[in-house]
TrEMBL record:
Source organism: Tychaedon coryphoeus
GO CC terms, sorted: nucleolus
Protein name per the record: Nucleolar protein 16
InterPro entries documented for this protein: Ribosome_biogenesis_Nop16
Coiled-coil regions listed in the entry: none
Length: 179
């Protein structure tokens, strides 16, 4: 088969194309991705990042917001006692809402998979506390060692202590009936 016509030809560089202008306009159009909803609602797209953060009372550059004293750097410099001009905070509610959200207790979202819960319950129901028997069980698909099985059972105990107590309590009457 013959080659495609335009593939082997050398590409020429276009000297008349202003690539800086193209890059700048594409960059300017992209809006910043803001994760915090409080900041997102107070954001003004017609202002710069520095102006928006200054209005909210947030720092753009953490090094300028909390400067390292010159004494720690090894150089001692005398200051005149003048503080730099304070910036006007027009949207203080953003900082207060963020502080309130940060002060809330963290919600535990630790859960175990349904398969792991069923596996642990099956092992405890059929073998009790005998981990060596559990390791030889045919339902031990992942070929867990006795220590691995014990660890999984302990994880289940820690995640669901009430459910574990109720499960063990429900097993005791069954053992009484067998004997």
């Amino acid at each position: 088969m013959p080659k495609a016509k335009g593939k082997s030809r050398r590409h020429k560089y276009s000297y008349n194309l202003n690539r800086k202008r193209l890059y700048r306009s594409a960059r300017r159009r992209a809006a910043p991705r803001i994760a915090c909803s409080h900041i997102r609602h107070a954001w003004d797209p017609h202002k710069s990042v520095a102006q928006n953060l200054a209005e909210m009372g947030l720092a753009e550059d953490p090094n300028k917001a909390v400067p390292i004293p010159k004494k720690l750097l090894g150089m001692e410099v005398e200051t005149d006692g003048q503080q730099p001009g304070k910036k006007l905070v027009r949207k203080p509610y953003v900082v207060t809402e963020m502080e309130l959200e940060a002060s809330l207790p963290e919600k535990k979202s630790n859960t175990l998979s349904r398969d792991l819960i069923d596996y642990v319950r099956y092992m405890i129901q059929n073998h009790g506390e005998n981990y060596k028997e559990m390791a030889r069980d045919e339902k031990n698909y992942y070929q867990d060692t006795p220590k691995q099985i014990k660890r999984k059972i302990n994880v289940y105990k820690n995640f669901y202590p009430e459910e574990y107590k109720n499960f063990i309590a429900s097993l005791k009457p069954e053992k009484m009936e067998v004997q």
